[in-house]
Recover the amino acids of this structure.
């Protein structure tokens, strides 16, 4: 009887461990691929940049993932909590978004200078 109980407890523990590993792996997979899934919606790389309409939709208090969903692509990390998206159409401006404690705090349009040597 003790062998049966030990075997049953061992199997239960094994199922709990396997279940925990599956949960951890699925969480890791989600974290690694959540931005790629958003970006895969776009057919062209330039569509992963932001445009003026999307920039206007950004509101204070949004999380980074919410901003990525609006822009349909990840921003370039400039510094801790500061991300930048190039404009889809204009090569002369970018959009800078500041996050504080994981929430959108400030957004601004950055005018770029040209790189022409003419």
């Amino acid at each position: 009887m003790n062998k049966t109980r030990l075997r049953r407890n061992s199997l239960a523990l094994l199922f709990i461990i396997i279940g925990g590993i599956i949960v951890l792996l699925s969480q890791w997979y989600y974290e690694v691929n959540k931005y790629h899934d958003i970006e895969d919606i776009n057919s062209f790389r330039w569509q992963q940049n932001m445009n003026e309409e999307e920039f206007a939709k950004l509101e204070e208090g949004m999380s980074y993932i919410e901003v990525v969903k609006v822009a349909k692509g990840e921003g370039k990390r400039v510094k801790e909590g500061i991300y930048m998206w190039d404009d889809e159409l204009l090569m002369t401006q970018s959009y800078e978004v500041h996050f504080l404690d994981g929430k959108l705090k400030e957004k601004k349009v950055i005018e770029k200078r040209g790189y022409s040597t003419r």
Strands lie at 76-79, 82-86, 93-100, 103-111. The longest strand covers residues 103-111.
